């Protein structure tokens, strides 16, 4: 019951179809899809066909890399082979094929995504915000270039997401579960259960004989995957940035030229505190001006016209800022009027503007000598940025022209750092004393999927203050740790396994006595080993659901038992065995809690909405026509599972 509700909106297919693939695509920096048409999108052999479009292995490979990057946020040591073997590749193919089928079906029905809508989607992506916190097209171009994307690719992906949302949000919103289903489930949430829970801990068992060498070897062989060190990479990188290319200080002539070119900033100027009203036509604007000049306060006249004080307040503002917010004509009129004055109506894009000047604040000119240091510092920053951008471009051009990592390092006089074989999180198993540099995890964002045959790349560190030339020099395949290195751990685990087996026998004997009528505390006391006394347990489903944490296994077991039943349950990590006895079950009644009924209905509606989406996607795929090349998929699976995950 509890796990059912926690599955709401967690369907991997639904999450992909509603556009979260695009979000992950931006966050993880993995390239997105290629174009449509008769040739496989993304390059490589065709592994599936949706309508007339062939899906190329390149697209799926890149999307699998994105999925792996997301999964690594929870498990940094995860490698591509494990991801594929756990079903990650099949999930990736299913998501992408279903998404493309839905998009094709929707376009056939006349659904589109306008350029304006896609512009809005792009502007809403936080990764594209500049220093002011607002969308910056230069930042966008820099980010997508770093992610090896083009703007058309980005727009195509966002347009597809928008079209699918137009289809699927109404589909999911139509889900409505009737009260006849909701009320019984809501009542289950109020059901209360009580009982006793005891534990037979492994550590309470008498020490047995140590594991034999044969047992140690057998355990190592059987659990070899547990002792396997994941794939690692040796990374070579060279840092450069602002501190490695200081420009010459600007001269007096250069500073003076900048001061002259920015006279509007440093010369005498003024700011004004303004109020503004925008009316739909000139007649209304003229009537408003006449009313104010006749003695009515500006605010009162605006309120009579339906405007609040917040609607008309511009506050203190400069001329350029006002022109940008309204128009040059409005700014000219507002800065020509005296303090306390009112402008005549001025036509703008939104209607007719009337501006009231509340106050005028003059700002004195700033002499060159007083701002010389400020200008010099700004010019240094500008020159540094330009020099750094030119250096990055020159390095990338050299790589594109065939220069190797060592060639660039030599020509740019960079200092190389080499890591031991490291995991994607920067750790290096077996390298005693290794401490990853702070920048290494950022560099591994892409390098953890590269091979030794890939060209070096330039990675951005932070907000463009530093860069790194990065190259994978060696890929160390996943390999089992030597038995001698893990032997002590195996002995400890085997000892716990044997102790757990002895604890299980005692727990089962206790459970048998309780089922025969012996009181549970008495059965524990007569177990033959010193055990903690069983504890009373009581809970309701709703309490466990609202705890927002994993429910203790023995408590969850109580909600799958009949009154009077006694069961045995293993504790995690061979820690022992629980003995659980359910005493009473008090049914709940949700009919007196309409809020709980509606909350339960909402969660049911979400789950049902997910089901609607999946069924709709399946129907669209059937109508569009989807075929898969199982042999090509098998070849891609073998390639990725073997570690060959480089993008084409």
TrEMBL record:
SUPFAM superfamilies on file: FKBP-like, Triger factor/SurA peptide-binding domain-like
Keyword Hydrolase recorded: no
Keyword tags: Cell inner membrane, Cell membrane, Chaperone, Isomerase, Membrane, Rotamase, Transmembrane, Transmembrane helix
Domain PpiC: 269-359
Single Gene Ontology MF annotation: peptidyl-prolyl cis-trans isomerase activity
The UniProt record lists the keyword Disulfide bond: no
Chief location: membrane
Protein name per its UniProtKB record: Parvulin-like PPIase
Organism whose genome encodes this protein: Alterirhizorhabdus solaris
Lineage: Bacteria, Pseudomonadati, Pseudomonadota, Alphaproteobacteria, Sphingomonadales
């Amino acid at each position: 019951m509890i796990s059912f509700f926690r599955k709401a909106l967690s369907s991997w297919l639904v999450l992909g179809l509603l556009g979260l693939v695009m979000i992950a695509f931006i966050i993880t920096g993995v390239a997105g899809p290629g174009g449509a048409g008769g040739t496989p999108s993304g390059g490589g052999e065709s592994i599936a066909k949706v309508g007339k479009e062939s899906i190329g292995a390149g697209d799926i490979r890149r999307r699998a890399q994105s999925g792996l990057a997301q999964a690594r946020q929870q498990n940094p040591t995860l490698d591509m082979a494990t991801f594929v073997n756990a079903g990650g590749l099949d999930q990736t193919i299913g998501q992408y094929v279903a998404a493309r089928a839905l998009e094709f079906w929707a376009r056939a029905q006349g659904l589109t995504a306008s350029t304006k809508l896609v512009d809005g989607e792009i502007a809403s992506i936080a990764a594209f915000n500049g220093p002011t916190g607002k969308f910056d097209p230069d930042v966008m171009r820099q980010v997508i270039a770093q992610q090896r994307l083009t703007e058309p690719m980005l727009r195509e992906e966002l347009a597809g997401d928008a079209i699918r949302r137009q289809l699927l949000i109404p589909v999911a919103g139509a889900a409505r579960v009737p009260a006849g289903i909701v009320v019984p489930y809501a009542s289950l949430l109020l059901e209360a259960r009580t009982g006793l829970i005891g534990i037979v801990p492994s550590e309470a068992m008498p020490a047995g004989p140590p594991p034999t060498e044969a047992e140690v070897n057998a355990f190592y062989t059987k659990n070899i995957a547990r002792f396997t060190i994941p794939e690692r990479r040796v990374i070579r990188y060279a840092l450069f940035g602002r501190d490695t290319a200081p420009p010459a200080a600007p001269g007096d002539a250069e500073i003076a030229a900048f001061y002259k070119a920015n006279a509007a900033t440093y010369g005498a100027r003024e700011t004004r505190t303004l109020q503004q009203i925008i009316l739909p036509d000139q007649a209304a604007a003229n009537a408003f001006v006449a009313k104010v000049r006749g003695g009515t306060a500006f605010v009162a006249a605006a309120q009579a016209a339906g405007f609040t004080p917040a609607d008309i307040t511009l506050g203190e503002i400069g001329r350029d800022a006002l022109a940008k917010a309204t128009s040059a004509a409005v700014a000219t009129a507002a800065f020509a009027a005296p303090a306390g004055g009112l402008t005549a109506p001025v036509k703008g894009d939104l209607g007719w503007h009337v501006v009231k000047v509340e106050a005028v604040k003059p700002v004195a000119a700033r002499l060159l000598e007083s701002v010389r240091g400020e200008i010099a510092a700004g010019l240094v920053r500008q020159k540094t940025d330009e020099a750094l951008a030119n250096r990055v471009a020159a390095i990338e051009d050299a790589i594109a022209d065939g220069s190797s990592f060592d060639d660039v390092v030599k020509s740019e006089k960079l200092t190389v750092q080499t890591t031991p074989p490291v995991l994607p999180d920067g750790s290096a198993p077996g390298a005693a004393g290794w401490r990853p540099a702070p920048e290494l995890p950022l560099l591994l964002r892409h390098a953890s999927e590269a091979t030794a045959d890939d060209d070096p790349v330039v990675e951005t560190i932070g907000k463009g203050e530093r860069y790194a030339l990065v190259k994978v020099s060696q890929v160390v395949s996943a390999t089992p740790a030597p038995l001698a290195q893990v032997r002590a751990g195996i002995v400890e685990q085997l000892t716990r396994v044997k102790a757990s087996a002895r604890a299980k026998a005692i727990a089962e004997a206790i459970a048998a006595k309780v089922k025969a009528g012996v009181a549970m505390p008495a059965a524990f006391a007569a177990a033959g080993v010193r055990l903690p006394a069983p504890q009373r347990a009581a809970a309701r489903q709703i309490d466990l659901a609202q705890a927002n944490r994993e429910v203790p296994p023995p408590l969850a077991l109580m909600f799958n038992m009949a009154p009077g039943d006694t069961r045995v349950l293993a504790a995690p990590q061979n820690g022992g065995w629980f003995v659980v006895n359910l005493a009473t079950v008090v049914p709940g009644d949700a009919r007196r809690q309409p809020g709980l009924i509606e909350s339960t209905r909402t969660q049911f509606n979400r789950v049902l909405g997910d089901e609607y989406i999946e069924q709709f996607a399946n129907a669209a795929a059937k109508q569009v026509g989807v075929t898969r090349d199982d042999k090509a998929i098998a070849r891609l699976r073998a390639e990725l599972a073997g570690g060959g995950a480089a993008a084409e």
